[in-house]
Write a structure and sequence with these properties.
179 residues; alpha/beta; four-stranded parallel beta sheet; three-stranded parallel beta sheet; 7 helices; 25% strand; globular
Length: 179
């Protein structure tokens, strides 16, 4: 891969960005470190929002513009970061603790759609060989109201199974957990 990149640099031009933001200045360095780790694995650059007082709406809008493929934020502890969970249109990477490469454990939350496979591929790149990836599918409101267990069925279940199969195929210890 490195030889191909050196011989054909235009084919490997950086086309994506990872957005980093923290509403807690004391944790901004950890968020920036995690964004750099993710960007390195995705062959992307990092763009950082430095205003900790930004609203969740402003961060979500910034993440949806341009070439952002993911938004990296601190573990939600404030109202703004919790609101961002509902508003973000790009994949969210939540940072808890410090990020070191490669990661030993990773939690991936999936919706059960085909687009989840991109998240799973990223997780496979970020976790160390033999590392642990916990896959937690989100259940829709219909499943919760019916109190079904497991709360995922049909095509969503099949898609999540494909994601688990992929993770096992790349050597990760993947496990499925419901809330």
């Amino acid at each position: 891969s490195d030889a191909l990149q050196r011989s054909h640099p235009d084919a490997y031009a950086i086309t994506a960005e990872v957005l980093a933001w923290s509403d807690n200045p004391a944790r901004a360095a950890n968020v920036a470190s995690a964004a750099a780790l993710l960007a390195d694995r995705l062959h992307a650059t990092v763009s950082t929002l430095t205003d900790a007082a930004m609203s969740a709406e402003e961060v979500a809008v910034a993440g949806s513009r341009g070439r952002h493929c993911a938004t990296v934020v601190d573990w939600p502890q404030s109202d703004a970061s919790q609101q961002l969970l509902a508003l973000a249109t790009t994949p969210l990477w939540l940072v808890r603790g410090s990020a070191t490469a490669p990661l030993r454990r990773l939690l991936v939350v999936l919706r059960g759609f085909a687009s989840d496979h991109a998240e799973v591929e990223w997780a496979g790149r970020l976790v160390e060989p033999g590392g642990e990836i916990t896959v937690m599918p989100l259940a829709g409101p219909q499943a919760n109201a019916a109190k079904q267990w497991p709360p995922i069925s049909g095509q969503r279940r099949d898609q999540i199974q494909k994601c688990l199969d992929y993770l096992h195929g790349v050597g990760a210890h993947a496990q499925l957990k419901y809330r």
